[in-house]
């Protein structure tokens, strides 16, 4: 079944409900970027805390 150019790269509700690999992959990529952002903020906060208290 060929994909149309307008639906390429998008995940539909049906894909999510059926746990298709593309839906899972897109979800993983989205969460991966959020996790990296959260991790970098945590490291910055840790460095700020160490500088504040001189640890």
TrEMBL record:
This is Uncharacterized protein. It comes from Brassica cretica (Mustard). One of its GO terms (cellular component) is nucleus. Residues 10-20 have a biased composition (Basic residues). Signal peptide: none annotated. Residues 1-20, 36-55 are annotated as: Disordered. It comes from the Eukaryota.
């Amino acid at each position: 079944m060929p994909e149309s150019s307008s639906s390429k790269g998008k995940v539909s509700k049906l894909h999510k409900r059926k746990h298709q690999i593309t839906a899972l992959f897109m979800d993983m990529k989205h969460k991966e970027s959020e996790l990296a952002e959260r991790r970098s903020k945590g490291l910055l906060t840790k460095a700020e805390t160490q500088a504040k208290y001189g640890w």
